[in-house]
User: What shape does this take?
Amino acid sequence: MSPTMRAVIKKALVFVSFYPLLLAWPVMAQMAAKKGHLATGKAVYEEICFACHGLKGDGKGPSWFNTKPSPQVFINSVYMSRLTDQYIFNVVKYGKLAVLKREIPDKKFESLAMPSFGAVLEDDQIRELIKFERAFSQGGPQSAEMREIFDAACAVCHGKTGRGDGERASTIQPAPKYFVSDAQPSPMNLTDPQLMARFNDDFLFSLIKRGRIGSIEEDKFDTMQPFGQVLSDKEIWSVIRYIRETFVNSNREKGYAAQKKK
Ligand code: HEC
Ligand code: HEC
Assistant: This one.
């Protein structure tokens, strides 16, 4: 059997076996709705979160330039749909570093931090790799040498085409539509210009060299801080509900359609 044929069959099988989960998707998405109040969520968002994530959820709040990487873009519905409510809850309550280091009470929770490659890649190779990566969203040539490195080191999580749907991203939904990684956070979709614009080259260099945890701890790049001391659980569920209903759900289908066209 040819490799392409095998891939087609594998894809079909994945689709069949996960079909019941597809049906369960709307139920999952409603979890925050049950636990939170929209009005409370709006109040919390406009008091705290807007400063970085922006009133419109575009990440361009007053602190857009002060944090590196820039704050997450909530109106990127394709990215946000890949994050489960429980992941968002944990990030807001305990901070992203604690989640990545699994220092949270929820032990069942899967988390996968971007690993470090400083031991296996030269600095010059990392710089070339960043150019290769940028070409996923910006177009332009991708060198064959970097393709080899990418396939060997990155594709297992980020996928051969850079969509964040590699094997270790472990789909619970067929990719790319409704792709959710059960290892949270899901590997970045490198083909998405809106998301890649959050990262400058210095950050990407630190990320690839030291990994996500190292880039936060050793190089002091920013990340999502914990808000568990200032917000109650109810308030956190409420703000998640607000984010889902206001920024994510409203343009989800549009987001997938745009991604499919590419
Ligand atoms: C001081 C700035 C700042 C404030 C205030 C802030 N955030 Fe963030 N947030 C960030 C940054 C920076 C990131 C990107 C972190 C990264 O990529 O590791 C982020 C990422 C996130 C993410 C995505 C995590 C991921 O893995 O992609 C969520 C969800 C989030 N914030 C929710 C909130 C909520 C809810 C509030 C309000 C209670 C809030 N943030 C307030 C800076 C902020
Ligand atoms: C074991 C899985 C894994 C491998 C291998 C991997 N990554 Fe990642 N990568 C991730 C995860 C998970 C994230 C999301 C991290 C986050 O949100 O904190 C990520 C995020 C990223 C980001 C975006 C930064 C961010 O904060 O979201 C870039 C760029 C990236 N990886 C590049 C690479 C490159 C280049 C390679 C190969 C040299 C690579 N990755 C290998 C898992 C992986």
Summary: Residues 141 and 231 are 47 Å apart (CA to CA). The longest helix spans residues 3-29. Residues 3-261 form one domain. The chain has 13 helices and no strands.
